What does this fold into?
Amino acid sequence: MKKFKIAIAAIAFLLGLVWVVTPLPSPLFLGDYSTLILDEEGEYLRIFLNSNEQWCFPPSEEPIPEKLVKAVILYEDKRFFYHPGVDPIAVIRAIIQNAKSSERLSGASTITMQVARISRPKERTILNKLLEMVQAVKLEIRYSKEDILRIYFTHAPYGGNIIGYKAACLRYWGKEPDELTWAEAAALAVLPNSPSLINPVAGQEQFKEKRDNLLKKLLDEGVIDEETFELSLMESVPGGQVPFPVHAPHLARRMENIFPGRRVRTTIDMDIQTLAEELAREHAANLQRYGTDNVAVLIAETRTGKVRAYVGSQDFFDDERLGKVDGVIAPRSTGSILKPFLYALAMDEAIILPDSRIKDIPTYYGSFSPYNADMEFRGLVTARSALINSLNVPAVRLLYTYGIYEFYSFLQVAGMTTLFRTPDDYGLPLILGGAEGRIWDLVALYRGLGNSGDFSGLIVLEGDSLEPGNRLISPGACYLVLEILKELKRPGSEYYWHQFSNQWPIAWKTGTSYGHRDALAIGVSPQWTIGVWAGNFSGEGNPNLMGSRSAGTLLFSIFNSLPKNPKLAWFKKPALDLTEVELCAESGYLAKPECEHKIIRDSPRTVKTLKICPYHRTLFLNDDETYQVCSMCWETGEYREVDRLVYPPEVVQYLKERGQSFRAVPPHNPDCPTLSFDNPIEIIYPVEGSRILVPRDITGEYQKVIAKAAYSVEKSELYWYLDDDFIGATLDRHTMPIALETGRHTVSITDSEGHTKRVNFRAERK
Ligand SMILES: [Zn+2]
Ligand SMILES: [Zn+2]
It folds into this structure.
């Protein structure tokens, strides 16, 4: 009796020991899964191999298709739902069978035991089988039957590098599990136990035989009917593999780096993505004939900021053309693409309205002197025309007035992430493409313009949301600028878009970077914001590269192909954010009594006031109208009051060149004592009466002489004349390069107050 007790205790101890020394692997699976990148609807954009080069989808909560469950249970483990992890009936039968024959150990393995085995594959020995049994019981204690099935289907091997039923369905038939036929379910059921069957050369016949046997069992058990059985037999077993789709590969790669092994649902719309990819590829093929290799496209929804298409390059796999570079986030020169924001901000600051005239004259900021693409100066242009024609001089002058720090900080807060230098470092060229930007950021910026000035960015992960409330420009100013950008001339046949009633308006702008390295076009409608870049990832310039032609044409072929919501055809006028003001028709600034023609225009509601028309003036003239006079020099009562449009002389010259005629404005009475009052202008160089030797450079070319002036009024312009011809305006640092011929010359400088200083000197070229 005592011995018996000891024996029982010993067995209990041994069992306990086995229980303790065979813990469940923790974690059960190492979680080495494929990264799945999905579009908004759950369609696959891209599927990545896991770190073991396997296709193994991460676990999901989707139900396992019933066909597959029935087929597997019938094939592997009939009593699965009734046993505790180990099937005693199957074990006894296996022992008898194995005792009878000398063949290797077979059968008796339940689905639960297989889960234990595939979680940490080991050699198939009796001892290991016993360990699996213990672990299976433990699994049954910890997990429900449904969980165990799900774990099994997610991790079972299906041949080659395919793990799990989902990868198998997609890889063998290109379909989702719930679309499986009975023949396909049966084929999948037999694979995990002999995955080498999938070998297309050797295994095909054997594979079909095993599958058909299982189908017969399903028929015998009454799971399928005779007709289904017959039809199923006619289906072939899979031989090869269906390649996985590749869409938005650059975005997919970014997401895989951030969320490896996860299922990542993006905001991409497969239809729009496919459309953009096709159009980008076609367009790039055209550009490539003229030496431009690469194209990138980003499309977002204006209202939600959701990215709907992301084309990093025209062809991810074109290594010769550096197709793996992501043109959506690679920083490139911005060209003129930032100008609209400056105009909108300047409207909020009451510096200009669309009709306000801005000077377009040679202007020197120290050594920096902007010029327009056509190398011409127009004297005065409306802000509207300056923006439509993307003139550089008015934009630089506007930036100077608005403030480079203010504009820089706007760009930062609005979401430009590539301002690596300081505002001083960029200087005024910032507005001409001095800074680099990402298409991603620029599309976000334009979307802000179309989103009533709320710059809340873009999202690409489904479920993310944007936080509104980053309003940096008033809805009124945004609207006025969008109305201007709508009028930009479209490229090619799009030029006549107004004449076609089926054409949709879009506010858009182009940019061409220095050296023709980058062509940009960005457009925004209430529904879509589209960014297009064309250029060479190698950085090589190309004279054929122009914003409108190289990028604009693709912008419009995309915009015209996108689905349109008629309710979002064009921006609604933000009536509450605009107020009517009376402007002078000639200057575009607030009208005053002297102004001849007046117009009513919209203005953003702002606390600041637009300046009053500077060009209409009441002149006091002597009787002959040969001199202007003032209270210091008129004889009592002997003057006439005349209202005149008086443009400053520095613009008159250019307006005349463009065919405008003016009544000359008489000079001030030379006998007037005010003219000898303190003069804030001082000419430092050349000196009165001096003789200047025109210098040459090392090649022998004559160089310009740098004239210098001092001006005691800060932030104001000086206007320079050489021999009475206007040669330029200076700001801040009053230095002016002058080309001099041999002979006598006069340099004269005036300011906007009417002060004048002049020097006479002689130049010699030797
Ligand atoms: Zn006026
Ligand atoms: Zn006077």
